[in-house]
């Protein structure tokens, strides 16, 4: 209020409309209940935190297990610590001679499975092999309507039926932990005892029962032939079914039969006691094994030579030459001699033979 009494200069009276109280400011509704990750798009790709090195000094075993065993163990709860079996080491941790594992019968997933397995060491101290784990950081949501632009928020009030259109998927930051470093690679092979043989028979029987069965119908179709379509169904269709003739494929005189992987590895190591370099074809003739299976087992302990005079041959890895079970003192530093193959079928060298056309006389 302004007055002009007793002076030429008007006086101004200032009144506080809130009567001395602090005015209340209504907060922005968009900032209430937002996710901790509701920032700019660049924040989604920033580092979620430091790498946890709590288990950096822990040594681990990397084990390859059979498929049927992994199918059962994959059903275990990852959040609980479960004792799946007992590992037996012969010879001490510094110089291991033999390792085996006996599955625990208390675990439900181990029931009806072979219990005894041999753990064959494939490689010691593999380079740069680590195991990591990660989990979602707490307090983050994968979907949030707060990420939508303002124009979509206004439109959502009108178009209420399309609810899923305004949900935006965003990345959840992960917390990464170093579990440990792999010190030993192992192959887990089941012991071929009575339990293993019974399990394989039971598994083969279950697979045979799960196969679809074929039902052979009679040539004549019964029923009311006056109905539409029945007359054509009575035609004998047996003439369309022909029996397959005898196969004319070339029979193999000496068909290779697989041996267990541990037995084949022992035979391969004995071959490298004689010569330092072996061609795959020479090993195939020497060991009488299928080529694909032999190559798969051979690459576990040997390396393919890619240059030099012995290119294309396999040489035993240096880590296996110190094995006390085998003697490599008298090995010859040369390639094993080529041996003619007695296997049936076509040979790879037949593709390089030049053919000539001969006209009939």
UniProtKB/TrEMBL annotation:
Residues annotated as domain TFIIF beta subunit HTH: 257-321
Major site of localization recorded for this protein: nucleus
Regions of compositional bias (Basic and acidic residues) in chain numbering: 352-361
Keywords of this entry: DNA-binding, Nucleus, Transcription, Transcription regulation
GO terms classed as biological process: transcription initiation at RNA polymerase II promoter
GO molecular function terms listed in the Swiss-Prot or TrEMBL record: DNA binding
GO (cellular component) term, any one: transcription factor TFIIF complex
Domain TFIIF beta subunit N-terminal: from-to ranges: 58-191
Similarity comment: Belongs to the TFIIF beta subunit family.
The protein's name: Transcription initiation factor IIF subunit beta
Organism: Letharia lupina
Lineage: Eukaryota, Fungi, Dikarya, Ascomycota, Pezizomycotina
